[in-house]
């Protein structure tokens, strides 16, 4: 009965540890950590995507260069005009330059110039249409990108600056010259509507159901097509001084670059940010990632749009005789989960030495998002157990570590007398005893040295007497 009682106490204690650890999961990010192109040596000032290649304006040669992402091959495009803004529509690349009343189009290796009535201030492309802002004339011109035919012409009291116009579907959006009024124009009917905000508008980005607005007091606002403010998010100070805005998944995800704060953020109900360790100068959204220029370190980086997996639940259950079963619930928001692995780290008995790591692939169970793996521990092994999940973009989700100690108690009984088997001395125990003895040697030498000095001093005093 005594043996049974001791085993029961141990089992209850172990189960208590497990239950407390079920919902202890590690920190997660809604957006992945930044990565960098290590083999590209340029002085970038502008970046875009054209025909699947990365297009960079290289200040060191005053030219656009094409970068093959897979091979790292850099090729000059022979465009020496320094751009202010670039917009791409499939096989055509449009850009505007400082103090020029021309619109430039790069098509099939040739640069074509289109004369405008005034200096363009901003351009934007969407679904075969190119919008050009001419605030000196308070005019918006919208062209067909294939034929360069002017399809729409509107007189609008326009604000100066990049990011003050945006187009999506049949709606064109613009910021008025007062800086506070947002204007929407239906391209087909010409009907207009507007809303005046209580903060100056810095940047706008249209999407299917409305427009996303960044305002001067570091707010992001979601405004519907019928001019209703649906939601606001407060960012940290200085976020909207120089900000890039992107909207994906019909407005469910907002990606932004707070360039002056050196961060890339995502809003999906809550706000998440990652630090990029450098001043962001330019950025562009591609099909699978957000590219950016780090001018502090003169390099090009990106963050995957695919978000890291999240370990939402993690528990360990004893299976008897040193066997344990780990269960983890893993959620991958983009459904591109690659693998889930259980890591058991054995604590070293020698101070300062790292412990051994054991890896166990976790198999998916019938229940949704639930993964399992079994492992064994030796008696008196002290370990930490956690789960790591990877997706196809190599984003990583990590759980918190669960500490675990397995103690196996073997008891022999004969009548009333109880004896216990003595554990064998392990090699690591010998190392620990030897290392402890080595630490005593300097102390013994020091004591002997002091005693010798005292004896010498006494003999010297006797001679003097």
What does it look like?
The chain is mainly β. It has 3 domains: 2-27 and 308-411, Sandwich (Immunoglobulin-like); 35-304, YVTN repeat-like/Quinoprotein amine dehydrogenase (Methylamine Dehydrogenase, Chain H, 7 Propeller), CATH 2.130.10; 424-465. 12% of the residues lie in helices and 49% in strands. It is built from 2 helices and 39 strands. The strands form 10 sheets. Strands 31, 32, 35, 36 and 37 form a 5-stranded antiparallel sheet that branches. The longest helix is centred in the last third of the chain and has 38 residues, at 427-464. The chain is elongated and about 100 Å long. The N and C termini lie far apart (78 Å).
Which CATH top level class of the largest domain fits? Mainly Beta
Quickly give the structural class. Answer: mainly beta
Q: What's the assembly state of these chains? A: single chain
Strand content: over 45%
Total helical segments: 2
What is the CATH-assigned architecture of the largest domain?
A: 7 Propeller
Computed over alpha carbons, the radius of gyration is 34 Å
Give the total of beta strands.
39
CATH topology of the largest domain: Methylamine Dehydrogenase, Chain H
Distance between the first and last residues' Cα: 78 Å
Shape, per Cα inertia axes: elongated
The average pLDDT score comes to: 85
């Amino acid at each position: 009965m005594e043996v049974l009682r001791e085993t029961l106490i141990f089992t209850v204690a172990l189960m208590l540890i497990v239950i407390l650890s079920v919902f202890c999961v590690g920190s997660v990010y809604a957006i992945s950590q930044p990565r960098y192109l290590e083999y590209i040596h340029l002085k970038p000032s502008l970046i875009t995507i054209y025909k699947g290649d990365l297009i960079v304006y290289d200040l060191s040669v005053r030219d656009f260069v094409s970068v093959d992402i897979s091979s790292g091959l850099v090729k000059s495009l022979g465009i020496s005009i320094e751009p202010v803004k670039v917009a791409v529509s499939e096989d055509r690349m449009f850009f505007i330059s400082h103090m020029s009343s021309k619109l430039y189009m790069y098509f099939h290796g040739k640069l074509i110039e289109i004369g405008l009535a005034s200096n363009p201030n901003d351009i934007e492309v969407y679904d075969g249409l190119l919008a050009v802002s001419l605030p000196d004339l308070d005019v918006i011109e919208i062209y067909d990108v294939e034929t360069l035919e002017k399809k729409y012409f509107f007189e609008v009291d326009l604000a100066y600056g990049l990011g003050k116009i945006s187009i999506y579907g049949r709606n064109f959006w613009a910021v008025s010259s007062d800086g506070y009024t947002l204007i929407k124009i239906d391209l087909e009917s010409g009907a207009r509507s507007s809303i005046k905000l209580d903060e100056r508008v810095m940047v706008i980005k249209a999407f299917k159901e409305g427009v996303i607005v960044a305002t001067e007091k570091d707010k992001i606002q979601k405004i519907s097509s019928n001019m209703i403010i649906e939601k606001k998010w407060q960012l940290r100070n200085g976020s909207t001084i120089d900000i890039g805005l992107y909207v994906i998944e019909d407005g469910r995800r907002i990606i932004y670059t707070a360039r002056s704060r050196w961060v890339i953020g995502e809003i999906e109900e809550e706000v998440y940010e990652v630090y990029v360790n450098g001043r962001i100068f330019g950025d562009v959204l591609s099909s699978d990632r957000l590219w950016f220029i780090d001018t502090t370190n003169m390099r090009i980086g990106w963050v995957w749009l695919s978000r890291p997996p999240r370990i939402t639940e993690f528990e360990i259950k004893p299976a008897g005789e040193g066997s344990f079963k780990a269960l983890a619930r893993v959620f991958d928001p983009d459904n591109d989960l690659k693998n889930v692995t259980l890591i058991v780290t054995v604590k070293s008995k020698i101070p300062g030495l790292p412990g051994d790591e054991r890896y166990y692939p976790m198999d998916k169970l019938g229940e949704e998002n639930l993964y399992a793996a079994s492992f064994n521990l030796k008696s008196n092994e002290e370990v930490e157990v956690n789960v790591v999940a990877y997706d196809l973009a190599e984003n990583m989700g990590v759980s918190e570590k669960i500490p675990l100690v397995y103690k196996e108690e073997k008891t022999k009984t004969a009548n009333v007398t109880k004896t216990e088997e003595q554990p064998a001395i392990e090699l690591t125990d010998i190392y620990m005893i030897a290392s402890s003895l080595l630490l005593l040697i300097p102390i013994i030498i020091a004591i002997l040295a002091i005693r010798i000095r005292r004896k010498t001093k006494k003999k010297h005093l006797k001679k003097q007497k």
